[in-house]
Amino acid sequence: MARLWQDPSKFHPSEWATANRMQHVSTESQKSRSECMIAESWRLLDEIEKATQKIQSDVNKKIEQRREEIKFWKQELDNKLEQIVHETEVLLTFKNRLERALESCKEPLVIAQKCLLYRQRRVGIDLVYDEVEQELVKEAEVLQGIIALLGHTLEQTNEQIRQNRSAKYNLEMDLKDKFTALTIDNYCARLTSNTPDIIYADNAVKTEGNFVSPEDWIDFSNINVEKADKQRNNSLALRALIDNILSQTANDIRKQCEVVNVAFRNRVKEVKDAKHKLETLLAMVMDESASQEKNIALLKKAIADKEGPVKVAQTRLEARNHCPNVELCYDRVQYSLMKEVQEINKNIQRQDTLAQAETELKGLSRRQLSLEEEIKVKENSLYIDEVLCMQMRESVYINNF
């Protein structure tokens, strides 16, 4: 009967007890594993937190180091920019000095050339290649050489200014980038896990593209600094050269100008002395001409005074030649008359001095004309040198460039 009432689908009490034990064991095992997992998770979370804090702290330090590096190079670039800007401004003043010096040389050159042209108007023997002309030619050559030198130096200065501005531009662009980078890194340094505007950026982690190495980054700014230093040093050297050129050229122009002026003064004195001597000679010739004219007048009067006696003597001889026969005697009267005629004729013949005197007078007249012409030549030369040239040269004044 007991077997008839036992349901085959029911478990045995021992199985029930075993199943309960198994549930307990399994639950305890699961609980144990879960506790281990929780402990491991806490350890891992703590480890991750510490690692995250450490790496973030390290990144913060590196950001700060980077900011200091950028600040250092920014300061270097700022210093070099200030130096190159100042140097360029100073060089521009030297450029202005060069331009003024170049302009100042034009008038003296024009005056020297005008003096040479004016002196071509000298005439006669005064058209001489004298010391004045030699020094004027030298002055024109000196001025032309100086103008060429100043022009070449001005070209060098313009090129150096261009190089300075190129270095300035590179520094400004580098500074602009440094300012942007510093702004970005300052922003990064302020970021924390609690900053409200932080985001996920999946594509932010990349190293390809336009990234450069730290060495290249340093080299780039260093090259800009070195270029600025090089151009500044070149500019300093050029300024020293310009200063020397301006000083030397001003001295050369002044020296040659004074040499020309001294030559002019000496030449004017020399021509005045020559003119004075010619005027003395002219006065002497004119006095001599007056004396010769008086002499000719006396000679003519003397000849005229002998015409009566010679006519008387010759008339007497002519009359006595008509004596008849033996009365035509070569007596003492005849002898005396013939002697008188011969003596008078002889004295008259001696009066050919009149022709010589007249010849000398003509010579003196020619000499007078020649001296007067030569005096006019000297007056013309004095007018050219003393009035046209020397007065024009008084406007030449060479200041220090």
Automatic annotation (TrEMBL):
Quaternary structure and interacting proteins, as annotated: Microtubule inner protein component of sperm flagellar doublet microtubules.
Name of the coding gene: Tekt1
Domain of life: Eukaryota
InterPro entries on file: Tektin-like, Tektins
Keyword Cytoplasm: yes
Coiled coil: 354-381
Subcellular location: Cytoplasm, Cytoskeleton, Cilium axoneme; Cytoplasm, Cytoskeleton, Flagellum axoneme
Function: Microtubule inner protein (MIP) part of the dynein-decorated doublet microtubules (DMTs) in cilia and flagellar axoneme. Forms filamentous polymers in the walls of ciliary and flagellar microtubules.
Protein's recorded name: Tektin
Keyword ATP-binding assigned: no
An example Gene Ontology biological process: cilium assembly
Transmembrane segments: none
Annotated keywords: Cell projection, Cilium, Coiled coil, Cytoplasm, Cytoskeleton, Flagellum
Protein family membership: Belongs to the tektin family.
A GO-annotated cellular component: axoneme
Species, as recorded: Smithornis capensis
